[in-house]
Specification:
About 30% of the residues are buried. Helices cover about 40% and strands about 20% of the residues. Strands 8, 9, 10, 11, 12, 13 and 14 form a seven-stranded mixed β-sheet that branches. A four-stranded antiparallel β-sheet has the order 4-5-6-7. Helix 10 crosses helix 15. It is elongated, with a radius of gyration of 37 Å. It has about 450 residues and is an alpha+beta fold. The protein is built from 16 helices and 14 strands. It has four domains: about 100 residues, Transferase(Phosphotransferase), domain 1 (Orthogonal Bundle); about 90 residues, Alpha-Beta Plaits, CATH 3.30.70; about 100 residues, Ubiquitin Conjugating Enzyme, CATH 3.10.110.10; about 140 residues, Ribosomal Protein S5, domain 2, CATH 3.30.230.
């Protein structure tokens, strides 16, 4: 700004013979500018009207203030650069020393950690990129962090320990921004590893976290996480189950559930049926399937539900059927970070056939040497009873998820076995998604093949 420039900056040859030799200036021009800044701070106006003012070129000005302040100003705003005070002399001036003694001591701030970076990968671009960037800018200003969108990655630079700024609250607000702009992003504790309290923003109980991971693997895009205590599961026909998990769930308190459906008309007596699903253990999946069956029954007029026979009620005799050679279908190999997953399926009608399919697969040396062979099956035992069970083969929780996939699809008279050859990289909860993904791909391909055969027959 011209009002702050020293005379030798505006016209180097007009000030002093020292400058006129080469037409340059040095840091002493900044000392003049510092004097002008101090003058403006003390008086509220400039010492000179413009560079055309003769007093400007002489370095002469009037000041109404304390003598010590005037002494410092006149030492800074001098015509000849070599006569101006140095910075060391400024700091030792009477005005600076007097005000330093009067100023209250600055609070001691604790030593903060070095700058850290959080990166969150988005599954796809936000719905409105410009709006999302604006929200990130507002978030950055509010919490004094640096948040930006780099292609499909949100990068947040922050200090791990800032006083009076708990990171948990910061991540809570960031999660809301991400969830609204990119609903496809699913909650995971690994998104915010620095967060220490998950009362609002993420599962605090390992059992709840496992239940959430299972629901994500089963329902995929139909499962929506609002926060750790609030989930929505879409069951079809525009109907959804909203679940609020209170403190004490699942052992001592049941979840609070609401049915969201078109025109506000829920299936009759569904609330009582949903509440009956809670028996002191995880029950959100059972509630969602109960609602799905009721909605399907309301649409088709069929009676909801089938009698389910669990592994605790092992049948003594399976239905008598001819023991024909079973046809096993193999799916494509799914590779994720050096771990391989392959699904196999066959149509069965008894537990003996399930065992036969498993034994036949294990004749293959490669499958026999695999890390895990997880299986799940469902078949009609005595109409309308359904016999269903699973085996984890050392991969705890995987069989239950496979069985949930079969139940969600309504598959019957079928066994699905997913083989995993484990790589050197730990997959975490992603391994469960891969089990389900491999199974679903094979089942959908088989569905498409059967439909194609029907069309060709017609």
């Amino acid at each position: 700004t011209p009002q702050y420039l020293a005379p030798e900056v505006l016209a180097p040859n007009s000030v002093t013979p020292v400058c006129s030799s080469n037409g340059s200036y040095d840091e002493r021009a900044d000392v003049w500018s510092l004097g002008v800044i101090l003058f403006v701070m003390l008086t509220g106006h400039y010492p000179f009207r413009s560079s055309e003012d003769p007093l400007f070129w002489e370095g002469r000005f009037s000041f109404r203030g304390s003598g010590r302040a005037e002494e410092l100003l006149r030492g800074l705003i001098k015509k000849r650069p070599e006569e101006r005070l140095s910075l060391e002399q400024c700091l030792k001036s009477a005005w600076v020393l007097d005000n330093s003694r009067k100023a209250p001591p600055s609070p001691q701030r604790p030593v903060t950690k070095s700058l850290q970076e959080l990166r969150i990968r988005l599954p796809q671009a936000p719905k409105n990129v410009s709006k999302f960037k604006t929200e990130l800018d507002s978030f950055s200003l509010k919490h004094k962090v640096s948040a930006s969108l780099q292609i499909l990655e949100v990068v947040v630079a922050f200090c791990a320990e800032e006083p009076d700024s708990p990171l948990d609250a910061v991540w809570s607000e960031l999660w809301e921004v991400l969830r609204q702009s990119c609903p496809e992003l699913k909650w995971s504790r690994s998104l915010f590893p620095e967060c220490k309290s998950w009362s609002l923003d993420g599962p605090a109980d390992p059992m709840l976290e496992e239940e959430q991971e299972a629901l994500e693997a089963i329902y995929a895009a139909d499962f929506e996480v609002l926060n750790s205590c609030s989930w929505i599961i879409h069951v079809g026909c525009g109907t959804a189950l909203r679940v609020e998990l209170p403190a004490g769930y699942p052992a001592s308190r049941p979840p609070c559930v609401w049915v969201e459906c078109p025109h506000g008309t829920a299936p009759p007596d569904i609330q009582a049926s949903l509440e009956a699903c809670w028996t002191g253990s995880e029950c959100v999946y059972d509630m969602a399937e109960c609602l799905r069956a009721a909605v399907h029954a309301a649409q088709t007029g069929e009676k909801p539900g089938l009698q389910i026979v669990s592994k605790a009620a092992d049948p003594d005799v399976a239905p008598a059927q001819a023991q024909a050679k079973l046809s096993i279908v193999h799916g494509e190999i799914l590779i994720d970070r050096k771990s391989s997953f392959q699904a196999h399926m066959a149509h069965v009608s008894s537990i003996q056939e399930v065992e036969s399919v498993r034994d036949a697969l294990l004749q293959d040396r490669k499958i026999m040497a695999a890390t895990h062979n997880v299986a799940a099956w469902r078949f009609r035992y005595t109409d309308p009873a359904i016999w269903e069970d699973f085996t984890d083969d050392g991969e705890a929780g995987a069989g239950r998820r496979l069985l949930a996939v079969l139940k969600k699809r309504g598959d019957k008279d079928i066994v699905v076995i997913v083989t995993r050859w484990r790589g050197i990289i730990h997959l975490g909860v992603d391994r469960f998604r891969n089990y389900c993904k491999a199974a679903v791909q094979l089942l959908e391909n088989e569905d498409g093949g059967r439909q194609g055969s029907k069309k060709r027959g017609q």
